Every structure is written in structure tokens, then in C-alpha cells.
Amino acid sequence: MQMTRGIVLLVLTQGLIGCGSNGPASPTSTITPTTTAGATVTRVAITGNVTLARIGETTQLTATATLSDNTTKDVTSDGNWYRGDPRIVTISASGLVTVAGFGSTWISFTYQSRGAGTTVTATLPGTFVIAGRVREPGAGGFANLLVVDTLSGRSATTDSDGFFSLAELPRVQAHFKIEKEGYEPVEKDATATNVDLPLQRVVRLTVGETAQPDALAPNDLSYTVDGRSCQPCRLIRVVVPQAGTVHVHVTWTLTSANLGLFVDGQVVAGATRELTADVPSARRARCSCTSERRHRWPSTRTSRSKRQCASASRQEGLCDCGGESSCESNAWYARKQ
């Protein structure tokens, strides 16, 4: 029997997961305000020009406190100023912002336990900025990770918290591509000024093995499966040693969550705490050829030589890989019902 290797991908989901917001958020304080001379601070607001067009340009921000007696007070130099990415702006104790580089980042101010925030954007006139964060749900942002926009050819590197911004874009449109060893590669279209780019660790096992992926976290990953959006989801790759039927058995503990398995556009629904399905591993078999020099998957990925892969192409209807390459079949997914 001709041996083939395939990949069955499962996306596990959990119920009762809330949605989060995209992009960097300005921090605010939630501590109960204090009183001064009989009046309390009810809110703080930041005003000033926050759209800048050249490196070295400065702008003065003003912080105004509103008190409980409906009076206002200029507190620009009385509170604390904070800034996000220092590669984009710096800010003085008196609220003077200086552009250090093109992009966008947040500025915040606190006074007597009240806070406010705004976003400063710096880019050439007639161009745009798209900013976002690369993160692992439940774990935080990725530092020093390259984010590439394949439309403009521009790229940016994430800061210590995973935030990045791409400036001088001709339009608010980008196709972001991110690769990190040990994580599923991500490609995502962006048509807004903020984008969220979560990454998932690769979970891979051979038929007969058992895997327990990381628990789902708030604002978790989403996948598009056969044109349908699946969120929150978890992807699992299963190596199939030969053509045939794969028996999939998934269990979970939360009674409020159900799983479903995508097979050739069909969904196999699971019962409470359990899903069982028989998946034909060769129905949509297809070889995906990737140069070893651009190897994006863990070292456990099976490799075939050009001659072996060409033989598989003739006998199994797979593709003819040029040079040293890796062969994988198509995928199946699971999602919340």
C-alpha cells in the first residue's frame, strides 16, 4: 500500500468566551477619586493636536480636570504623563510631545486617580497609519517580531508589549503576514486603523497519540473555515501515516461548550463533553510543497525528496514538488456550535 502523510486540523472552541477589542488601548485608572477643598475630580480630558506630519515636530497637549462643582482646572503640569512606543513619540512632564518616528501610539495622563488617553499619529501628509498588536491569547504580546505588509512591501517590528505601527501607507489597507517558529503562521487583511493579530502555538500529533492544547482565553483566535468564521477556536494538526479513515475522539470538561468537526464543508456536531467522528484522510489529499530553506513548521514535519514526491504525485494525485520539500494533505477543522 502506498503510504501517504496527511494532516487533519481540528479547531477546538470553548463557550462563554467574550470578544475583545482590536489594537492598542490607552490605559485609564478606575480608582475612586479623592477630594480636594471640598470638590472631587469627576473626569480628566486631554486636548491638543495629535496628528503630526514630520519627525522632530512638537505639539503641546493640555490636561483639564472637571470637578464635582462643575468647575474646570488646568492640571497639565500637576499630573503624570505616559506614552506608549518610544520609537514614535516622547513626552515631557509638561505635556510637550515630540515625534521620534512615523507611526501611532497612545498617550495617557492621570491626575488624582482619574485618567484620560488619546492616540498620537505621525505620518507624511496624504498617507495613513495602521497599528496593532501581535499576541498570544492569555499570555501577552510578542516582542521584536517582524510584521510585513505584502501590499506595500513595508514592515515593522513589535515593541516589548507586541505593539507595532506601519506608517506612510497609500491607503488604509494592508495584508499582514507574520511567521514565528513554533506558532501557526498568520495572514490577515486590514482595512481599519487598528488590527489584532493573535498567534497560536502549533499543536501536532500522530494518529494514535493524544494532545491537550492550551485552554481557550478571552479574545482568543478565529479561523475562516470554508468561508465561515470560527471564534473562539483552537487548531490541532494530526499527522496521518496512510490513506484511510481517521477516528477522531475529543473530550472536554465544560458542559457549556460544544465542538463541531469540519469535514469537506460539512460539520459533525458533538454532544456534551464529547465528539466522535470518522474522517476520510484521503478525500481531499493534496501535497503542499515548501522549500526547506523557508521551513515554517516544527522539525517533526515529514520531508520527501523530489523523486519520492513526484512518485506520490503520479500514484496518489498529489503535486510534483521541486527540490527538497515537505508534503502535507488538506485540513479539517472543528468549531463551536
Structural summary, described in words:
The chain is mostly beta strands. It folds into three domains: 129 residues, no CATH class; 88 residues, Immunoglobulin-like (Sandwich); 68 residues, Sandwich (Immunoglobulin-like). The protein is built from one helix and 31 strands. The protein is elongated and about 70 Å long. 35% of the residues are buried. The N terminus and C terminus are likely disordered.
As residue ranges, the low-confidence spans are: 1-8, 14-36, 283-337
Structural class: mainly beta
Radius of gyration: 25 Å
Largest sheet geometry = 4 strands, antiparallel
Question: How would you describe the oligomerization state of the chains in this entry?
Answer: single chain
The side-by-side strand order for the widest beta sheet comes to: 2-3-6-7
Shape: elongated
Strand composition percent: 35-45%
Please specify the SSE layout and strand pairing:
Blueprint lengths: L5 E6 L23 E2 L2 E9 L3 E2 L5 E3 L1 E6 L4 E3 L5 E4 L5 E3 L4 E4 L3 E9 L2 E9 L5 E9 L3 E2 L4 E4 L5 E3 L5 E7 L4 E5 L7 E5 L3 E5 L5 E3 L16 E3 L2 E3 L4 E6 L4 E7 L7 E5 L2 E4 L4 E7 L22 E2 L1 H11 L8 E2 L6 E4 L1
